[in-house]
Design goal:
Blueprint (H helix, E strand, L loop, with lengths): L2 E5 L4 H12 L3 E5 L5 H8 L3 E3 L13 E4 L8 H8 L4 E3 H9 L3 E6 L4 H13 L6 E8 L4 E4 L6 E5 L14 E4 L7 H4 L2 H13 L4 E5 L13 E6 L7 E9 L2 E7 L4 E7 L5 H15 L4 H9 L9 E5 L4 E5 L4 H14 L5 E5 L4 H6 L1 H8 L4 E4 L15 H7 L5 E3 L5 H8 L3 E5 L8 H8 L3
């Protein structure tokens, strides 16, 4: 038994590794800035967590400190460990070590990777193939971001491009769901980010799946096989056609290089998730999942918390919560909402995430947010960043080209929403807007 200390243990990727090491019988301690539903779960599982940045809370005889790059460099506990020379590894380094001797299925991309990796994990785990998984969201089927199967060689991981974390992985199978400029605070420009993705795909040993249009092709001489996939055309290796929406469920036909699978059912909202399903099914079939298992498991996939998550659904009102925090994610979200609820008024509540992202994509955000019939903006969630002069939600609101737009404080949000009489309400963002979900649900559920 070893003793591990996690700096930022409440992070979605950190907590999955903490759960894994805890299940192996190790002693787990950790620090996080805020108490959350996830840290409560970790404490129930026997982990000891402090929410006070105080070195007096640190236990003795720690074997390894695991930290997230999102920890501020002025954090006292972090600086204490650095100052006295403790052995410290980033989360990505530990994940690389855990998975290096397994058949690693690594899903990367600017967006779509959490849902796709969770789909793959669900299909494999409930089949004769099996898998372990370290996910970037809470699977509604597993009710966790982590699952283990000691009898399977496969492990599914979300390959995070932030801080170049995914370069610690050595995938047997990999996929890239999208490649859009993001995390420019890390990369500086899109070209540098693209080079990092190329380095990631070049590490893939057997099979690489690229969404159609993602230009990251493997180099000549590689033994890795490359495939592409899409729902927007008939010229990919794997594609969906004849897509039908019935009361929030999607039916489609899947064409593969080998055969056509007719009438696959996905009981999970958002037409963009049909595209995620195409790739997830392709990978599952290559791993040896049977057609019967594939059909059963894709139809029983319940989704990921905060990814097109339907919180309330009545004939006169629907409430959805979504993690979208990049303009292209918001674009895909609006498109799916328009298909699913073509005659309904769409009301969005968006909390921008990071000052740098808001600054870099202000024009794109304003364009995509204009797709809602009504839009409400909350203040920017800063996460790891300090404010930037002139960059705020009111600046973004000014750019949105529509009349039905509102700025709201957190304190005034519930009353404003009630006054708007929404038909389809969507809360959007990667910050603490998730704390409002239960409050909004309580306010609207009895109407």
């Amino acid at each position: 038994m070893k003793t591990y200390y996690f700096l930022g243990i409440g992070g979605i990727g950190m907590s999955a590794i903490a759960r894994y090491l805890n299940d192996l019988g190790n002693k787990i301690y950790g620090y996080d800035r805020t108490l959350s539903e996830l840290t409560n779960e970790l404490e129930k599982e026997g982990m000891i967590i402090t929410y006070e940045d105080n070195i007096l809370t640190i236990p003795k005889n720690i074997d390894l400190v695991i930290y997230t790059p999102a920890i501020p460099k002025d954090n006292r506990i972090y600086n204490h460990f650095v100052g006295i020379g403790y052995k410290m590894l980033k989360r990505s380094q530990v994940l690389g070590e855990i998975t290096k001797n397994m058949k690693c299925i690594a899903i990367a991309g600017s967006h779509g990777k959490t849902t796709s990796s969770t789909m793959i994990a669900h299909i494999l785990h409930n089949s004769s193939v099996g898998c372990s998984a370290f996910l970037g969201g809470i699977s509604k089927n597993f009710n966790s971001n982590y699952v283990i199967n000691k009898n399977s060689d496969y492990v599914v991981v979300e390959a995070d491009e932030y801080d170049r974390s995914f370069l610690q992985l050595t995938p047997t199978i990999s996929a890239v769901t999208a490649l859009d400029a993001d995390h420019l605070d890390i990369y500086g420009d899109f070209l540098t980010m693209q080079e990092s993705f190329l380095e990631f795909t070049s590490k893939t040993k057997e099979f690489l799946f690229l969404k159609k249009g993602v230009d990251l092709h493997i180099s000549e001489g590689s033994t890795c096989q490359e495939f592409d996939y899409t729902i927007r055309g008939l010229d990919a290796d794997y594609y969906a056609t004849n897509i039908r929406n019935y009361d929030g469920s999607y039916y489609f036909d899947l064409r593969t290089p080998e055969k056509i699978y007719y009438d696959i059912c996905l009981n999970y909202g958002g037409v963009h998730n049909v595209e995620n399903a195409v790739m997830a099914i392709a990978i599952a079939l290559i791993c040896g999942v049977s057609e019967q298992e594939m059909r059963k498991n894709i139809s029983s996939f319940s989704g990921v918390k905060r990814r097109f998550e339907i919180i309330l659904k009545r004939k006169d009102f629907v409430y959805i919560d979504d993690y979208a925090h990049h303009p292209n994610e918001i674009k895909a979200l609006v498109e799916s909402l328009r298909i699913q609820y073509p005659t309904k008024k769409l009301t969005g509540v968006f909390q921008p995430h990071l000052y740098t992202r808001t600054r870099d994509f202000a024009d794109q955000f304003s364009k995509e947010l204009s797709g809602f019939d009504e839009i409400v903006l909350l203040d920017i969630y800063p996460a790891r960043e300090e404010p930037i002069a002139g960059i705020n939600s009111k600046m973004l609101l000014h750019k949105i080209n529509k009349m039905d737009k509102y700025y709201s404080t957190k304190e005034g949000l519930l009353d404003l929403l009630e006054a708007l009489y929404p038909e389809v309400l969507v809360t959007i963002g990667a910050g603490d807007i998730s704390n409002f979900v239960s409050q909004i649900e309580d306010r609207f559920k009895d109407e």
